[in-house]
C-alpha cells in the first residue's frame, strides 16, 4: 500500500461514482462514544469522515453513540464538539445522539420479535457464555430460543417495564449458534440497565447494544458510507443482517480502515485516564497528552493535524506511525507561519561597557525571514542584555560558534560584540560577561576583517520581560510504552516537562494573546498557554524543538 496520502476510501468512492454504483450525496458520520476526550487517533477518523464529505460535496454528521449511560458524561459531549470544531470541521445539521432513536430502535426490536427473529433470553451471563461456545466449538441453542412471539413480546415488555434485574434477561437476535463468526451467535440486541441516561433520563431501563444501534442509526440518518476501524470487520455480517431484516429507510454499507497507532504514546482512553489518576499529567488537556485538547494546548495547529492525517493516509492495515511525523507536521506549519522572536531561557548578563547606562536604541527586526505580511518587531538595544549561559565560554575551540572571552559574536538582529572580561560570584562561577560593541556592525562585518564566530540571541535586561516557559517533551521514553516493562507507567520520560521560571523575552511578546504561536529563534516553536498565559503575565509552552532529537 503506498504511503503518504493514499486514501483507499476516497479512491473507492470515486470509483463507485464513476461506475454509477453510487448515486446522490456521500453521507458519512463521526460517531464517538461520549466516554472520554478525543485523542489523535480520533483525529484520523474525523479527518477521514469529514474529509470525504468535503471532497465529494456531501455531508458528515456528528453522532454521539450513547448506548452506555454509566460511562458517559456531558463534559465529554462538550469537549468532543469543541475538538471537532477546533480541527476546522462542522457537522451537518444538529448534533445527533443514538438515543434520539431509542423509540425507533425499540420498534425495530419489536419487529424482529414479531418476525420470529429475536427472543428474550433468560440465561444467566455465565450460562450464556457456555452456550455461546468458542472459536473451535459451536454454540448450543438457549432453552429460551423457541419461545413464542407472544411470550417474547410479553417478556420484552417486562424488560422495558423494569421487571428484570440487570443480567436477568436480554433480547437476542435469533441468527445461528453454530456460526463461525461469533458475532452471529445470537448477539444481544437489548440489555437491562437500571441507569439514568444523560439524554433520556429515566425513560429507559433497557439499552440497545452497539451492534443493534449503530447500523440502524446510520440508516435513519441516510448515511451512505459507515466508516469504522478494522476491529469491526467481523461485525459487518451482523450489520448487514440487521439492515436486511428490518424496515429501515436506507441501506448504508460499512467500510473498515486501519487505526492510527503512534509510537512513543498511548491512545486508549482507559490508559490515558490512568495517567491522570496517577497524577503524572495535569488532566485530559495536559500539553503532553495525545488528546486533541492536550495537543491544542501544546500548540499544535489544526492545519498541522489535518496535514498529518493526510500524510499518514488511509489503508486497510494497522501500522505504527512515528511520532516524528506528527512533530514534523507542526514544524512545517510553524516554520512557515509562526512569527520569530527571541527568548533567553537560561540567562547570563552581558554588559556592553561602551554603551551608556541610559542608552536605548530601537532596532528593527523582521517578523519572519520570508513573510512580509507578518509585522516587523522593535528590539530595544541597551547596555545590559541577557544571553544564554550556554552561549558563553571562557575558552573554546573553533567549533564553538558562540561567544568566547576575547572573541567576537553577533547579537542577532544587532551588533557584533567582543567579550573582554567576566565577573564571578564567591563560588567562582561567571555571573556577568563584559563586552564592547562595534557601532559600525549593524548589518555589516567589522571593518578590521575579523569576523564574528556566530550569531546568538539576546534580550534587553532593562526592557525585556520575564516569562515562564514550559519545555515539554515526549511523555514516554520508549517507542512502545509498556512492551518491555509490562507497565507503560514504567516507561515515562523523566524529562517530559522542564519548567524555566526565569526566562526573558523581547518586550512585544509579553502582550500577545493566549494561543499565539511563535518561533523562539535558535530554540524551537512555542505557544502562549491557552489558560495560564495572560497578556502581561506570559506563560509559554514548547510545541517542539527546532530539530528532532529523538530519531537516530
Ligand atoms: P478508545 O479505544 O480510545 O476508547 P474508541 O474507538 O472506543 O476509542 P469511539 O469514541 O468509539 O472510541 O471512537 C469514535 C470513532 O473514532 C470510531 O469510529 C473509532 O473507530 C474512531 N477511532 C478511535 N480510535 C481511533 C484510532 N486510533 N485510529 C483511527 N480511528 C479511531
Ligand atoms: Mg467505540
Ligand atoms: Mg472505547
From TrEMBL:
Superkingdom, natural source: Bacteria
Binding positions (ATP): 33-35, 39-45, 229, 259-260
Chain ranges of the Glutamyl/glutaminyl-tRNA synthetase class Ib catalytic domain: 25-334
Intervals of motif 'KMSKS' region: 266-270
Signal peptide: none
GO MF annotations in UniProt: ATP binding; glutamine-tRNA ligase activity
Glutamyl/glutaminyl-tRNA synthetase class Ib anti-codon binding domain boundaries: 338-438
Biological process (GO), any one: glutamyl-tRNA aminoacylation
Protein name stated in the entry: Glutamine--tRNA ligase
Residue ranges annotated as motif 'HIGH' region: 32-42
Family label: Belongs to the class-I aminoacyl-tRNA synthetase family.
Main localisation: cytoplasm
NCBIfam families tied to this protein: glnS (TIGR00440), PRK14703.1 (NF011291)
Residue ranges occupied by any tRNA synthetases class I (E and Q) anti-codon binding domain in the UniProt entry: 455-529
Subcellular location: Cytoplasm
UniProt keyword annotation of Aminoacyl-tRNA synthetase present: yes
A UniProt-annotated Pfam family: tRNA-synt_1c_C2
PROSITE patterns noted in UniProt: AA_TRNA_LIGASE_I (PS00178)
Gene3D superfamilies referenced in this protein's UniProt entry, alphabetically: Glutamyl-trna Synthetase, Domain 2, Glutamyl-tRNA Synthetase, Domain 3, HUPs, Ribosomal Protein L25, Chain P
Record-level GO cellular component terms: cytosol
Subunit field text: Monomer.
